[in-house]
Amino acid sequence: MRKKIVAGNWKMNMDLSSGIELAKGVKEYFAGKTPKAEIVLCTPFIHLSVMKDVLKDSNIKFGAQNCYSEPSGAFTGEISCSMIKSTGAEYVIIGHSERRTLFKEDNKMLNKKVRMALSTGLKVIYCCGEILKEREQGIHFDVVKEQLTEGLFNLTEDEFKNVVIAYEPVWAIGTGLNATPEQAQEMQSFIRKLIAEKYGKGISENTTILYGGSCKASNAAELFSMPDVDGGLIGGASLKKEEFCAIVEAVK
Ligand code: 13P
């Protein structure tokens, strides 16, 4: 059985104390409960060094939202994978559409980051997804295929086992307009088929594929009921404790 995951992507939100409060709130909510999904909090960098302590005595994991592709050196303002790993973080999001668009990160750069993260022992949440125009033109499958092929498909099987995929149609991110469960399923089964072609059925069946884009408590159960939707990558709704915890509980 592949792992179900609900990951919060806090993006550039939460100062230190409000982030600690939110993480503590989620931890307290699930104390003594056994959620069906692994919970991952992807916080801004400033929270990482306290999260191990804040989340201790819980099963909640945490991670970063970005990393740099080089191990160390004169890269003013960047954060390396080994720095992230040294905080106790287990995950890093790579290839979020906001990084692709606003910070001009292309598949080649993202592939370098992915390989650096994996070689450092981090698990990668690799994001893919088309913009609205690409869907309207009917090229959304090609776009996602290219993002996966160029970003991931030179990994070894062992490396690929530490990759989680997040399908995030860009038109659904922060818009309130989520993909329908059928649209998510259609793309996510396509993604699983591509993985099977590259790495074999065993690995593809074990790969966790998340949906992200206006996922909230009111639509999560329906999205997560799809056979190839193994949980969610949650933006805005991960900033509210009740909403985020309800999304986690929508995983059956
Ligand atoms: P929203 O949930 O705010 O639409 O954001 C999704 C996202 O980008 C998660 O990475």
Descriptive overview:
This protein is α/β, with parallel strands linked by helices and 252 residues long. It has one domain: TIM Barrel, CATH 3.20.20. It is built from 12 helices and 8 strands. The protein has helices at residues 16-30, 45-54, 81-86, 97-102, 107-119, 132-136, 140-152, 157-160, 181-199, 201-206, 217-224, 241-249, and strands at 5-9, 38-42, 61-64, 91-94, 123-128, 163-167, 209-212, 231-234. It has an 8-stranded parallel beta barrel with strand order 1-2-3-4-5-6-7-8, surrounded by 6 helices. Helix 2 links the parallel strand 2 (38-42) and strand 3 (61-64). Helix 1 runs parallel beside helix 2 (45-54), helix 5 crosses helix 7 and helix 11 (217-224) runs parallel beside helix 12 (241-249). The two termini are 13 Å apart. The structure holds 1,3-dihydroxyacetonephosphate. Residues 9, 96, 168, 173-174, 212-215, 233-237 line the site of 1,3-dihydroxyacetonephosphate. 1,3-dihydroxyacetonephosphate binds at residues 9, 96, 168, 173-174, 212-215, 233-237.
